[in-house]
Automatic annotation (TrEMBL):
Protein name: Tyrosine-protein phosphatase domain-containing protein
Domain Tyrosine-protein phosphatase per the UniProt entry, residue ranges: 1-88
SUPFAM superfamilies per record: (Phosphotyrosine protein) phosphatases II (SSF52799)
One annotated GO molecular function: protein tyrosine phosphatase activity
Gene3D superfamilies named among the record's database cross-references: Protein tyrosine phosphatase superfamily
Originating organism: Caenorhabditis remanei (Caenorhabditis vulgaris)
Lineage: Eukaryota, Metazoa, Ecdysozoa, Nematoda, Chromadorea
Amino acid sequence: MPTWNDEDIPPFGYETCYQVMQTIIKSKKPIVVHNTKGVGSAMAFVGLEYTSRMMEYHEEYTYKDAFGKLIEKRYCSFQNACQIGWMHVGSIYFTSRNHNLDMYMFNQMNNVFFEVHRTYSGVPNNESGVKWF
């Protein structure tokens, strides 16, 4: 996905990420997912599958639990809160696609996320070095 800026969310939708991930999962050969810094966009992409599967395998997990396990694997793996929010919505997309669920919940969350992203309303203050984008 060479058009995805390291410090941003992708310029394409979740379906593209889902299709690329399905190709990776089906591959008989190892595939490395990386970018120039090894964080940010690479972790957001890998995190889509990781967090959605963690919540699937551990039904008691919330997104916060699954995300906590992900960042245990790679501390400081995100460059901004926007990437984390994008991945949160995307994990719902992946779960919905993996189980042929109605996309209602995803659509609701996605609309809220992109409204926040577009208007910058409801974005947390830049505290402790955490920035939106």
